[in-house]
Amino acid sequence: MKPETVCIDLEQHATHYSRCTQKAKSMFTEICSELSGKHLLSSKAQSLTRMYCKASISYQPVIASIGEPKPITATQMQEKECNRLILKAMQDDSPEVAAKKEKVCALVR
What we know:
This protein has 4 helices and no strands. By secondary structure, it is mostly helical.
C-alpha cells in the first residue's frame, strides 16, 4: 500500500480528506483483525493480511479541523482601508481621493 494514494481524490478538500483518511485507517484495522482471525489462508490471503496489518500499524491519517476565523483588529481594518484607497487613487487622481488616502494611510504608518 502506498500511503500517499489513500483518498488522493479528496486531497484538495481538507475536511473531507481528513475524514477519508481516518476511515481508511479504521478499515485497515478492521480488515487486519478479520483476516488475522482466519486459519488456513492461501498464500495470497496471507499476503493481503500482512499488507492490511502493516497499514493498520503504520498508516497515519490526516487530522484536520477548521475553526472560526479570528476577528479582524482595528489596525487590520485600517490597513485594509488604506490598501483600498491606494488602489482607488491609482484609478482616480482627484485631490479628494488623494487626501483621504493620505489621511487614512497616515494612521497605519
